[in-house]
Amino acid sequence: MARTQLEAARDGETTPEIERVADRENRDREFVRERVAAGEAVIPANRNHGTLDPMIIGADFATKVNANIGNSEETSDLEGELEKLHVAVHHGADTVMDLGTGSDLDRIREANVAHSPVPVGTVPLYEAVKRAGDPEDLTTDLLLSVIEKQAEQGVDYMTIHAGILLEHLALTEGRKTGIVSRGGSIMAAWMEAHGEQNPLFQVFEEICGIFREYDVTFSLGDSLRPGCLADACDEAQYAELDTLGALTQVAREHGVQVMVEGPGHVPMDRIAENVERQREVCDGAPFYVLGPLVTDVAPGYDHVTSAIGAAIAAREGAAMLCYVTPKEHLGLPDREDVREGLAAYRIAAHAGDVGNGLPGARDWDDALSEARYAFDWSEQFELSLDPERARSYHDQTLPGDNYREARFCSMCGVEFCSMRIDQDARAEREEGELEELNGETDLAESSAAEVNLPPVGTHETGGDLDREYPRPEELSADD
């Protein structure tokens, strides 16, 4: 059996994936190998994901952003899901998670893997429940069968809800919002119905064997994450975290890469505590956080409430941020929601990297500031996180190419533009024309990682667009 990225790194091997990651992060290859070998960074790269452009997740590297996509019973359409994948990659998603719970799950998953240049994650428990018909009818054989099939299909990382235990359930009784994780609620329902321990916990070592064969990365699910500020940092959340720390060690002993998922709703003053505790309990395994949302009062704007927490978490050492869209708590996101969520989270991730002083991270900011002061509108647009949005907003009030040379925008107008006033005053002090304003920052020479340089979304979705994927009725019960 071929070695996993973790095993190869431990043996001193610099794999092709490590070489590619080192190039993308502008880091020494040996440094990358050491971090992977220590389990403090992961490279999700299933052997069967042929269109993958490898990336790395770890606190020592640029903060990454995941975009959740997927269908529901109300919306099940292969073309629509591939469109979401394209929008996510175009707007800078470093990974995508297919959280589909509707129809055509196999067909859509295979299409996503075939077309995605970024790692694809899943929650296999969802498909297992679909097959069982009821959470109480889940069996360990069914769970293992679904996990192995998805691994064979090329899924790069999977959320496994193995940390919630029978003895944890009583700890949730006093919560305002109970168990808000879909996977967590399913496993809790199963344990209460059977009076037995979590089946995913019971077969965890067998899952490790499957993951090692395909080099799938664990994303250990936080089944008891808080769903409101009142439940943050409670006994239930931290009891499960202790279990996740133990499971991290088991997975590493089997040569399998691990990252650990983190809380959803946390007040600002306790985010650092969450990051520090996870890194200690889970021995430095990359922390993958949802948000956190720092207030509960803004349905429709939770991409904002969560991006605030995400920026703080990134500054404190979270390795990957799971985006939240404006539709959070309200409905299934569409392509515009995906765009809004990714913009908010790319900002949060980049701000965290700048705050942490990652090599070259601020060069992008400096280059755009220089273009702004020089009134080089075209350069500003090209350097923007979302060039289409920046160009559109400018042109809504000052249309026409002649305004691309103007020394003002419609915010202040020509008479009150502070930068124009400042430049004119400088020119007068210098008794003549102000010297040509040339940018000093050369992004081509920047030491920044690719994700901290424009343009965002440089991947192109790959795969065979004309490939025929099987319909559900064409799949046997064993597929």
Automatic annotation (TrEMBL):
Residues 430-443 have a biased composition (Acidic residues). One of its GO terms (molecular function) is phosphomethylpyrimidine synthase activity. Zn(2+) binds at residues 265, 329. Binds 1 [4Fe-4S] cluster per subunit. The cluster is coordinated with 3 cysteines and an exchangeable S-adenosyl-L-methionine. [4Fe-4S] cluster binds at residues 409, 412, 417. Its EC number is 4.1.99.17. GO terms for biological process: thiamine biosynthetic process; thiamine diphosphate biosynthetic process. Pathway: Cofactor biosynthesis; thiamine diphosphate biosynthesis. Substrate binds at residues 68, 97, 126, 161, 181-183, 222-225, 261, 288. It comes from the Archaea. Residues 461-479 have a biased composition (Basic and acidic residues). Belongs to the ThiC family. Catalyzes the synthesis of the hydroxymethylpyrimidine phosphate (HMP-P) moiety of thiamine from aminoimidazole ribotide (AIR) in a radical S-adenosyl-L-methionine (SAM)-dependent reaction. This is Phosphomethylpyrimidine synthase. It comes from Saliphagus infecundisoli. The gene is thiC.
